[in-house]
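TOPIC: backbone geometry
CONTENTS: sequence, structure tokens:
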Amino acid sequence: MGSVDESLVSYLLGRSGITSLVDARVSQATVPERESLPYIWINRGASETLDDLSANPSDTTAFYESFDVECVSGDLAKAQLLAAEVKSLHKNRGEFGAGEVQALIVSDHSDHYRPKNIGDDDGRHVASVEIEIIGYTE
């Protein structure tokens, strides 16, 4: 039994368009030191459970989860190509790692988002997207 985080990593690694660009370099929360470029970094954003009008949770399982996804490369065009591969997952549903999802919503990140994988002029380019996972169940 895995978490939604682990299922997201597994799901991304199961997409040939993504693995052709990053091999198995998809990291959750932290990036291994000296990670080769390009890679994908994911970090959990928000999660919500379904509540009824009496404010009692109807289920303790999160119904909605969002993740920051950063596509990192030494080349801007490759970072954008990798982000396009991730964005192609928009509106997918069904099998998802160790479980299933009702829907994936993938969009460009807000203009206010600050990428975490950019250092001081280190030559990395980041294309950021947000993945919203709706109705994940195992």
About this structure: The radius of gyration is 16 Å. The helical segments are 4-13, 16-22, 76-87. The mean pLDDT is 86.
